Amino acid sequence: MRVIGTVGLPGSGKSEAAEVARGLDIPVVTMGDVIRAACRDRGLDPATHHGEVATALREENGPAAIAERSLPLVREALEDSDTVLIDGIRSDVEVEAFREAFGEDFELLSIEAPRELRADRLDLRGRDAGVEEGGESLEARDERELGFGMGEAMAMADATVENADSLAAFHDRIETLLTDGLEATEGER
Length: 189
Description:
Layout: E1 2-7, H1 14-23, E2 28-30, H2 31-41, H3 46-61, H4 65-78, E3 83-89, H5 92-102, E4 106-112, H6 115-125, H7 138-148, H8 150-155, E5 159-162, H9 167-180
Parallel strand pairs: 1-3, 1-4, 2-3, 4-5
Pfam families: AAA_17
InterPro entries: P-loop_NTPase
Protein name: Dephospho-CoA kinase
C-alpha cells in the first residue's frame, strides 16, 4: 500500500500531478472536491466561495476537518488499488492526520513553482473566479493557504519537485515518482 499526498501553493501543479496519476490508473482523492461539495451543500458557488467554506469547515470541525472527510474516500480507493494519490493537502495538521492513518505507507510530495508562473497557470485554468468576478487574488489565496499551515506542510515533505519547466517535463518527473518512488527526486530541489 502506498498513499502519496501532494502539497503546494495554488497553480503549482498539483492538479497536473493528479492527471498523471489518473493516466497510470492510480485513484486520486482531491481534497478540493470535498470543499466544493461542501459549498454546494451550503447553496454556495464553489468558484467564488471555496476559500470561505474551506475556512468555515476548519473553524467548525477543527483544522483536520477536510483530511478527516477525505480519509473514507482514500480507504475506499485502497480497496481496489495499491496506490492512491491525495491531491491538495493544505496544512501540517492534515499531513499528521494522514501519517496517523497510514503510517509509513504515507509519503508527501511538495510541488513548487514561481508566483508569476502560478498566476499564469491559474488564469489559463479558468476554474476559479478572479478578483473582478468576486473571487480572490493569488496573493490572498497564498496568504489564506499559508495561514492554514501550508508552509509547515511543505517543509514536512518527503520530496520536492520544482515545476518551472515544460508541462511534458513535469509529467515525466511525476510519472517517474509515481512508478519508481519519491526517492527518484534525489538531487532535485
